[in-house]
Design goal:
- The complex is a heterodimer.
- Helix content of chain A is 65%, strand content 6%.
- A three-stranded antiparallel sheet of chain A has the order 2-1-3.
- The model of chain A has no long low-confidence stretch (mean pLDDT 88).
- Chain A is mainly alpha-helical.
- Chain B is of the alpha/beta class.
- Chain B has two domains: 146 residues, 3-Layer(aba) Sandwich (D-Maltodextrin-Binding Protein, domain 2), CATH 3.40.190; 170 residues, D-Maltodextrin-Binding Protein, domain 2 (3-Layer(aba) Sandwich), CATH 3.40.190.
- In chain B, strands 1, 2, 3, 4, 8, 9, 10, 11 and 13 form a nine-stranded mixed sheet that branches. A two-stranded parallel sheet of chain B has the order 5-12.
- Chain B is globular.
- Chain B starts with a helix and ends in a 7-residue tail after the last helix.
- β4 of chain A pairs antiparallel with β2 of chain B, so a sheet runs across the interface.
């Protein structure tokens, strides 16, 4: 009954040509496509926008950390204080204070004097000491010396401390500002590139804090990670992909490797604490242990990337190699691995970049620490770049805000370099079949 | 070829690792763990020590007071830390644990005080609180406002509800999480101090100590108190953005950010350096560090580090730690602990 009715309506309707149906829906389909396209574009623009905001805010906050305010002092290297037999232990802070008093002879009273001494960094005394020890002939002369300014002065010069608020709300009082203005007028204040930031380790004085200790720590840690996780990862991938029989055991292994890649990194930190520190008794805070922990985290990623790279090598190459009499090992080492290498390296670099940004596992093995000396080897205590960012972000001094952003810039610089290397390797050596 | 070199390198690394087992039998730097409140002060001393003596700069981990004492009490030997910093005194349970692990000689050194500050943005008026107000505003259960000795869930929404002399703004307090030593000290000093002003709660201390602690130390969980994490800089930023909010943190953050935030008066005392130093400001706590006596001879430099820390130029009223925001001890207390350090006087073992 029903079917008859349907048949009748069809026969009653004019036969419709396919092109009519198509052109009827055409505008709608174009519209849908345009919407789809706009949506994609909007997504790209939104992500670029967030990225730009992030970069601008970090660079805006951080670039000033690469500069530092210096003050010129006319130091008279007094032979009275600098006796030849006790040069190393002479009273250099006293020498700095004396110089300051000589420059501002009108300053009287204990409190004012203390405020006056606060204009220059405590580094000044060490700088004078180094100068005298390097060249004792300067004793008895008056020499102009540029010394770093205290962090509060530096913040003021960079505009991070406002002058126009009432005196009680500033860390610098009106007298200190007046002295500073006088120094400025005499051309005794200069902003220079902050080599200290690049050349030294951490410090509690923001004007002396540097990134080198953390950068070297990160480098040593990553070196250990690379040297361990790359061979392990590649060997495991080659075995699983080329040599292993396909059975339930290898399936089980595969599932577990995928699971391992998804384990939160803090778990590896706890494992490192229990195994490497407590069981093997390796030293706390050492890049060696950090590298071992990050290896655990990185090599599953390398295995997965390497297997994908090996899979993309066409079977014909393997067959050809075997066909002309190569052994399985020769086939793998001479033909398959070189062809898969760009993919493997890309995966490795991305895994390493992830390891570079990791803090959580390092927390458990004592790498979140205040370490001034730049590490010299794999067993020296050290921190890593992201840890340094964390520690500076938590410091009360205002000047550490810009240091934090500057450290982020350095970390981002490393990450971008590593990712760019991955892209270049792929572009240069990738082969398509 | 590539594989051969990397295998070789891996083998080398492995031998490095094995070598380190021997290497740790002599450690040539001081290892310090402990409180994040003492961290900024200890690091300043350590840096000064590293620059002025031939020894290496000590390594300082910020693990929290409890975590530090746990590591400290794990045993004697170079793999264990030499010194732990704490923003509270060592507990008797911790002393026992130390003893059980062979750590029997512990030198206690009090280094100064830290004030705990309730601060709000400079854009508004400073609050004038009493400890009772703090307790009433933040406790989970408070005495029934209609009288009697009953405790009811905290009904107060605004500061004015708590005390009619306070402004009519919503109670919104950003403070540290329970893992923090600052929180421990805050509930002990401010909240308990406020709870004690009610006679029946004070009487509870003798009859039912557990309940007394629960009443005084439990902070409300209905959103008026927000746990803002351990990053005090973040709290400062949030206060600057929201003038109605009040933040809880250590004195050094107020000291460094005096252009953005102001501390509230507590019991009539302003949270200034002088008021905390002479004990007028009620919410302040002592800071300590603990030294393993057995390590003093074994690790080079500990004696000099102790001497640096207990020198007048470090912990004195004009010293560089005061500049970093630590409140120095009165002179007789400094003398007492200086003597303790000189003689390495250990705390009594149970």
């Amino acid at each position: 009954m029903n079917r008859v009715a349907v048949n009748e309506t069809i026969s009653v309707m004019k036969p419709k040509r396919a092109i009519e149906t198509v052109s009827k829906g055409l505008r709608k389909r174009y519209r849908a496509e345009r919407r789809f396209r706009m949506l994609g574009l909007a997504a790209v623009i939104a992500s670029l926008l967030f990225l730009t905001i992030m970069f601008i805010s970090i660079f805006g906050n951080g670039y000033t950390a690469f500069f530092q305010t210096y003050v010129k002092l006319n130091v008279y290297f007094d032979p009275e204080t600098l006796r030849e037999d006790t040069l190393a232990r002479a009273d250099y802070p006293g020498l700095v204070k004396k110089t300051m008093r000589a420059m501002f002879p009108e300053v009287q009273g204990r409190r004012d004097k203390r405020n006056l001494y606060k204009l220059v960094s405590s580094e000044a005394a060490f700088q004078l000491r180094a100068m005298v020890l390097r060249n004792p002939d300067i004793i008895g002369q008056e020499i102009p010396v540029w010394v770093p300014a205290d962090d509060d002065i530096d913040m003021l010069m960079k505009g991070h401390i406002r002058r126009d608020v009432p005196e009680s709300e500033r860390r610098l009082n009106d007298k200190q500002l007046a002295w500073l203005d006088r120094l400025s007028a005499d051309d005794r204040i200069q902003t220079r590139f902050n080599w200290t930031f690049i050349r030294s380790g951490d410090s509690r004085e923001p004007e002396l804090a540097g990134i080198l200790g953390a950068a070297v720590g990160s480098f040593l840690t990553l070196l250990v990670t690379l040297l361990l996780s790359f061979p392990i990862g590649v060997a495991a991938a080659v075995y699983l992909e080329e040599l292993a029989p396909k059975n339930r055991w290898t399936d089980l292994i595969e599932v577990n490797i995928n699971n391992l890649a998804a384990v939160p990194s803090i778990v590896f930190g706890l494992l490192g604490l229990a195994v490497f520190l407590n069981f093997f008794g390796l030293p706390r805070s050492a890049p060696l242990v950090g590298g071992l922990v990050l290896t655990l985290m990185t090599f599953p990623t390398i295995i997965i990337a390497s297997r994908a790279a090996l899979q993309s090598v066409p079977p014909s190459i393997r067959e050809a190699a075997l066909g002309i009499g190569a052994s399985k090992m020769q086939m793998i080492v001479h033909h398959v691995l070189p062809l898969a290498l760009p993919g493997i390296l890309t995966g490795t670099i991305i895994g390493m970049a992830r390891a570079l940004g990791e803090t959580a596992p390092l927390l458990m093995i004592g790498m979140v620490a205040f370490i001034v000396d730049v590490p010299q080897g794999f067993n020296d205590p050290s921190t890593a770049l992201p840890v340094q960012i964390f520690l500076w972000a938590d410091s009360p001094e205002r000047a550490f805000v810009e240091k934090t952003s500057a450290a982020i810039i350095v970390l981002l610089g490393f990450l971008i370099t590593m990712n760019a290397a991955a892209v270049m390797l792929r572009k240069k050596y990738e082969r398509r079949w | 070829m590539f594989r051969k070199t990397s295998l070789l390198a891996a083998a080398m690394l492995l031998s490095f690792g094995l070598g380190s087992v021997d290497a740790r039998s002599s450690r040539n730097y001081i290892s310090i763990v402990g409180s994040s409140t003492v961290y900024p002060f200890a690091t300043t001393v350590a840096e000064q020590f590293g620059r002025t003596t031939p020894y290496k700069t000590p390594k300082i981990e910020s693990t929290g007071s409890g975590g530090g004492l746990k590591l400290f009490c794990a045993g004697v030997g170079v793999e264990h830390p030499d010194i732990t910093n704490a923003s509270r005194a060592i507990k008797s349970s911790e002393v026992q644990k130390c003893k059980a692990n062979g750590v029997s000689g512990i030198v206690e050194v009090k280094i100064g005080y830290d004030g705990i500050i309730l601060a709000n943005s400079k854009k508004t008026q400073p609050l004038k609180l009493t400890r009772k107000d703090i307790f009433m505003a933040l406790a989970k259960d408070v005495p029934d406002p209609n009288g009697g000795e009953k405790l009811i869930p905290n009904p107060y929404r605004t500061w004015k509800d708590v005390n009619s002399s306070l402004p009519d703004i919503k109670i919104e307090v950003l403070g540290p999480p329970p893992t923090s030593g600052t929180r421990d000290a805050f509930v002990e000093l401010a909240m308990e101090g406020g709870g004690k002003t009610f006679d029946f709660i004070k009487a509870m201390k003798k009859t039912d100590k557990k309940r007394y602690k629960a009443v005084c130390h439990t902070i409300r969980e209905d959103g008026a108190y927000v746990e803002a994490g351990e990053n005090d800089n973040l709290i400062v930023q949030k206060l600057d953005a929201n003038p109605d909010a009040v933040g809880i943190f250590g004195f050094s953050f107020l000291d460094q950010n005096a252009d953005k935030i102001q501390g509230s008066f507590v019991d009539g005392a302003p949270p200034t350096f002088d008021a905390i130093a002479d004990g007028k400001y009620p919410v302040s706590r002592p800071l300590f560090f603990y030294v393993k006596k057995a390590h003093v001879e074994a690790i080079p430099g500990i004696k000099d580090y102790l001497a640096e820390f207990t020198s007048e130029k470090a912990w004195g009223p004009e010293g560089y730690l005061a500049e970093k925001g630590m409140i120095p001890m009165p002179e007789n207390e400094r003398k007492k602990f200086y003597k303790n350090v000189q003689t390495l006087q250990t705390i009594p073992m149970p």
